[in-house]
Amino acid sequence: MPAPLPPVANEADSDARIVESAVDALRAQLPPGWSVNLELQPARLTEGWRPDAAITVDAPGGGRPARLVAAYEPEITPKKAVEVARRLQSYLDENPEAQGLVVAPWGSRRTREVLRQLGIGFIDPTGNIDLVLKDPGLVVRVDGADQNPVPNRPVSPSLRGPKAWALMKTMIEVIPPYGVRELAAAVGTDPGYTSRVLRALEEERLITRERRGPVTEVDWPALLTQLTSSYSLLDANETSTWIARGAVWDLPATLAASRFETRWAVTGSLGATLIAPVAAPAMAVIYADDPVELAGTLGLLPAETGANVIFARPYSNAAYARSWKTDDATYVSVAQLAADCLTGIGRMPAEGEALVEWMRANEDRWRAPDFDTSPNPLSQR
Questions:
Q1: Which residues contact 46 (CB under 8 A, 6 or more apart)?
Q2: What is the pTM of this model?
Q3: Which residues make beta-bridge pairs with 310?
Q4: pLDDT in tens, 108-117
Q5: Continuous segment of H or E residues that includes residue 23
Q6: Which CATH code is given to the segment(s) 157-229?
Q7: Nearest to residue 331, comparing CAs of 367, 280, 287, 372?
Q8: Cβ neighbours of residue 277 under 8 Å, at least 6 residues apart?
Q9: Which CATH class is domain 13-142?
């Protein structure tokens, strides 16, 4: 254990203890023979900003230790992480032998991801560690607490619930720019609520906005991850399970031929395999406003076990937005397919991952240029 820390100028003693505890968490994860030394507020080497601590990491057998310069933040968010990284980088430009590190009481997964993309490490006392040492070579990535154990402010409810879900889904699907009122009108939400959701998403570095202006960029892969963190196919939607006597692959064509007046749309494996096939679908998942009517027409049998058909009453009407057709059968949007597969059962998550890879390579085939367009991913533009 390190010696007791001396008083820290311009920082509360509690902040110094947090830094020490975070370093202890790092120390506990290192291989045998490695050592970590902490020095709070090192001597000023350059004018301007200076780090709050210096940390050296020694590998067994001698050699040059890794030197980390650390910035302490009492409350870190993805947006603030970018600002802190810039301050660290300005220091690192003058001290190229060092590496940057952020220390905080707690950091979210998204915050750590943003810092990683910027080449900056992170540690906190709960055991969240994301650190890559160049020399001596070492990678430490450990998940600690997934929620802030002592939140400094109430957790915003704005990224949960069907309204926030519908807004996020829409921003994944539609290419910006668009303003608050335009987005709110398209989704059917209150402009004030929509503005609060956008502020929360901006703080998470999931979107970029002009100051008091429109959304200009959407990090749709990260936003899809955020959306699926509070949504799952079977939990969010009201579902019922059935058995089809024939092949589930035939169900979309049968539904298309039946000319139902009530809404329905295919999701899950049957949709994903048309775009990014992984294996022959074994389960059909279909959104339906009247599942019993569809089940009766298709001759399905209700089943508690062994089901190969799931009907779902949608979590939000936004599930139907930007649906597309092929051979007169209706399929949900590609983003909806991805969300449902990633949070589904069996091999659906693997199908979802394959679909996301296709989405990355083919944005022009599934992202809409405006709110009224429903791209067909099977069409070549």
A1: 91, 94, 95
A2: 0.78
A3: 241, 285
A4: 999 999 999 9
A5: helix 13-29
A6: 1.10.10.10
A7: 287
A8: 354
A9: alpha beta
